[in-house]
Each structure stands twice: as structure tokens, then as C-alpha cells.
């Protein structure tokens, strides 16, 4: 499968699944007229899911704090983790709370017992702290076999080292993890493939809680992310390999280096909400997908030299909705396929009407498209001014100094 087809809307993926079943399965019967059919009876057998919260011993109520003040974090947090934190083969539950530093509520850790029920193990765990806690990731940062934790918050990110016995130590400062901005999601990945997990923190917006926002009726309401400037994600490289070469009792338990700028991750601000680390282009190196809130998503492709390139637009998952959008479906040169779609918004907010430039004559048409941008006949591409659009086309095509496409590559 070509890289350009790896990312599509979920609905499109489901459509393909249904299409495959229709092609490979038995012929589908003619759909009945449901208006003439009696209501369907309930299926036999028990329900698929049963609420066992109370019986399992989990007693947790998420605290969002004083909702009368409409603080923006209240409609965003919080996360949880399900992981075997004590190595007994049974996953524990870590549930984050969001009531603020002065709240009587704190995160809760539940240990799973052999009978499948849970007991509250929060007290003394090092995880039972209050605050505006957002997301959590689980990973072994010092390669000792015990899963450690990273927790994002509105005023910083915490790194917690697993000491064993469901006890954790806050090593944020010692490890060099400094992220004073509003972090939402977080992920561990080994982006440089040195055998030590690195840390990717997704940041949201530069929020000002004193800024009042209103609904369309003028009533006080929570602010939308577009009200504030988005902030860039951060990437921290694990220095464990360096420390392992120079053993010293004075070495920190774990150490990270902020490579946000060097890796180019800092070039594209959010507002980021979700993150997934995986090999998006099949080259064996982990890439990072960041889901932004109300803005084009980011797909950071690992260039295998310590840097990343943001390629959501040319690979498909940017998912932008605006006038004069350009989407690139770009396959490898072996497929001899480059397509540009100029998405024009339909009148009155209707569906977009794509004008596809396909296989035939694509070299000439790509060049014409570049010329159209230069002449301001297409004024905006992904919110960029024309010159930036030319540079983006040059990144996926071989072009001369004027931007004219001379060879696809």
C-alpha cells in the first residue's frame, strides 16, 4: 500500500471494510423496507458489558473543580492508565483528577487483587497528588524492567520513577524534563532507536484564565481553543545510553535532553490534544501523529537523523476544512502517481467540489498550478501565502529555481 493511502478518515476506512466484505463475501440480499417491518426483538443472551464498578471496589469521582468560573481546563481533562505497575501480571488502574492544587481530591491508584477486584493503593504511592492533571503515559525510562509514568498538567509535566511495590518518585527536575506549558497528551517512543524511551509531550494553548468568553447568546461560557495561541509540542531525548557508558553512583536515575528545536518539532504549534507514536511510513522508525483541536493535525515523519518533517498535508491526515484547500495524494515514484486536489468550498457551506489533477499531463499541470499560486489566482493553501505553497510543492517534486516542475521525485 502506498504511503498516501495509509491515512484516511475513519468513515472512509469503514467504507473500505464494508466494500471488501461485499466483494469477498456472499451476495448481499436486497435491503428490506424497514417501514413495513415490525420492531426488531432484543437479541437472546446477556448484554456484552456489565457495570461492575462498585463490585470491583473502584470508588472514584472525577473532580473538575469550581465549574462556576468556566476555566478552560475543566472541559478538557482528564486521563487514566491501565497497566501492570507492580509486575504481578494483573493491571492496575490510575485515575487522574482535575480539581486544582487546592482541591481535596487527588489522583487514585487501584491495585488489582487476585480475585479481580481492586483496592485503593493511592496513599503513599507518590501518585496521590491533586492538581490540574491531564494525560498519562506508561513506559520504562531507565530500563530496569519497571514501568514508569509521565503525567501532563496545565502547569507542567511530571516524570515519576517506579521504585517497586507501587511506590513512585517524582524525578521531573532531576531528569531535566521541563515543560511549563499546558500539556495534554504524552507518549513514550524510541525515536532514535538507541534502546531508551524518549518522551513526546503534546501541548495545547497559551491559556489566559482571566480572559472571559461568551456563548452565541452572550452567556458566560468556556473559551474555544481558537481564542488563544497554540503552543508547540516538546520532544525529550533519553540520555540513558550516555549514562550507561559512564556508570557513576551520582548519575541521575534518568536524564533527558530537550531536543524540541533541534528535532524541528517546535516549528509547528498546536493546539494539540491527542498523540500516537507509530511507524507511519513503514521505514522501521517511529513517527508521531498529533491531533489538534480545531486546527489541521500534524504528522511528524522521522527523518532518521534526529529530525522530523511535518507531512500531514501531503500524506492525508491534516483534515482541514476551509476555502481553497490543496490536498496532495503522493505515491512513491515507482507508482508514477502525483495528484493534486484543489478543494473549493461549495456555496453556503455545502460540500466541497474536488477538481482532481490526475496521472495524465501531471508534470505540466503541476507547473501550471505553481504558476497559478504565483499569480495569486489561488491565494491560500492550508493558510499559507503563495510562496510557502510553492516550497511545499518543491518538497515533493523536483523543480527548477522558479518552482516549475521538471520531474516528479
Fold and architecture overview:
- Strand 22 and strand 23 (405-408) form a beta hairpin.
- It is built from seven helices and 23 strands.
- The chain is of the alpha+beta class and 409 residues long.
- The strands form seven sheets. It has a four-stranded antiparallel β-sheet with strand order 1-2-3-4, with no helix packed on it. The chain has a four-stranded antiparallel β-sheet with strand order 5-6-7-8. The protein has a four-stranded antiparallel β-sheet with strand order 9-10-13-14, with no helix packed on it.
- 14% of the residues lie in helices and 29% in strands.
Summarize the biggest pleated sheet: 4 strands, antiparallel
| Physical arrangement of strands within the biggest beta sheet | 1-2-3-4
What Rg, in angstroms, do the CA atoms define? 25 Å
Structural category: alpha+beta
Q: Which percent band covers the strand fraction?
A: 25-35%
Query: What spatial form do the alpha-carbon principal axes imply?
Result: globular
Helical element count? 7
N-C termini distance:
18 Å
Q: Into which percent range does the helicity of residues fall?
A: 10-25%
Number of strands: 23
Provide mean pLDDT, rounded: 76
Q: What string gives the helices and strands in order? A: HHEEEEEEEEHEEEEEHEEEEEHEEEHHEE
Spans of at least 5 consecutive residues whose pLDDT stays below 50 are 1-35, 321-365, 377-392, 394-409
Amino acid at each position: 500500500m502506498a504511503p498516501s493511502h495509509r491515512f484516511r478518515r475513519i468513515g472512509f476506512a469503514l467504507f473500505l471494510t464494508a466494500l471488501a466484505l461485499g466483494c469477498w463475501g456472499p451476495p448481499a440480499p436486497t435491503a428490506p423496507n424497514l417501514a413495513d417491518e415490525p420492531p426488531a426483538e432484543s437479541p437472546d443472551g446477556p448484554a456484552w458489558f456489565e457495570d461492575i464498578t462498585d463490585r470491583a471496589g473502584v470508588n472514584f469521582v472525577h473532580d473538575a473543580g469550581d465549574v462556576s468560573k468556566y476555566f478552560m481546563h475543566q472541559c478538557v481533562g482528564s486521563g487514566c492508565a491501565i497497566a501492570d505497575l507492580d509486575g504481578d501480571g494483573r493491571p492496575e488502574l490510575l485515575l487522574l483528577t482535575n480539581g486544582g492544587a487546592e482541591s481535596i481530591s487527588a489522583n487514585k491508584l487501584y491495585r488489582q487483587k487476585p480475585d479481580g477486584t481492586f483496592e485503593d493503593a493511592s496513599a503513599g504511592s507518590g501518585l496521590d497528588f491533586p492538581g490540574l492533571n491531564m494525560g498519562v503515559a506508561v513506559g520504562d525510562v531507565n530500563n530496569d524492567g519497571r514501568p514508569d509514568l509521565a503525567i501532563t498538567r496545565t502547569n507542567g509535566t511530571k516524570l515519576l520513577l517506579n521504585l517497586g511495590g507501587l511506590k513512585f518518585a517524582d524525578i521531573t527536575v532531576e531528569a531535566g524534563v521541563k515543560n511549563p506549558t499546558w500539556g495534554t497528551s504524552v507518549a513514550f517512543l524510541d525515536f532514535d532507536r538507541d534502546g531508551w524511551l524518549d518522551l513526546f509531550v503534546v501541548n495545547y494553548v497559551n491559556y489566559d484564565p482571566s480572559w472571559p468568553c461568551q456563548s452565541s447568546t452572550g452567556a458566560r461560557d468556556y473559551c474555544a481553543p481558537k481564542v488563544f495561541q497554540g503552543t508547540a509540542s516538546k520532544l525529550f531525548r533519553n540520555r540513558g545510553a550516555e549514562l550507561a557508558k559512564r556508570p557513576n553512583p551520582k548519575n541521575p536515575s534518568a536524564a533527558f535532553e530537550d531536543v524540541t528545536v533541534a528535532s524541528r518539532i517546535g516549528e509547528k504549534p498546536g493546539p494539540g490534544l491527542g498523540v500516537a507514536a507509530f511507524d507511519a511510513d513503514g521505514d522501521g522508525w517511529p513517527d508521531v501523529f498529533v491531533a489538534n483541536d480545531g486546527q489541521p493535525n500534524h504528522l511528524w515523519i522521522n527523518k532518521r537523523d534526529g529530525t522530523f518533517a511535518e507531512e500531514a498535508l501531503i500524506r492525508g491526515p491534516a483534515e482541514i476544512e476551509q476555502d481553497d484547500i490543496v490536498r496532495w495524494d503522493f505515491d512513491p515514484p515507482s507508482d508514477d502517481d502525483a495528484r493534486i486536489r484543489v478543494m473549493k468550498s461549495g456555496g453556503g457551506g455545502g460540500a466541497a467540489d474536488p477538481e482532481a489533477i490526475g496521472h495524465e499531463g501531471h508534470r505540466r499541470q503541476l507547473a501550471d498550478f505553481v504558476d497559478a499560486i504565483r499569480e495569486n489566482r489561488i491565494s491560500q493553501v492550508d493558510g499559507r501565502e503563495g510562496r510557502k505553497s510553492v516550497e511545499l510543492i518543491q518538497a515533493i517534486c523536483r523543480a527548477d529555481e522558479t518552482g516549475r516542475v521538471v520531474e516528479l521525485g
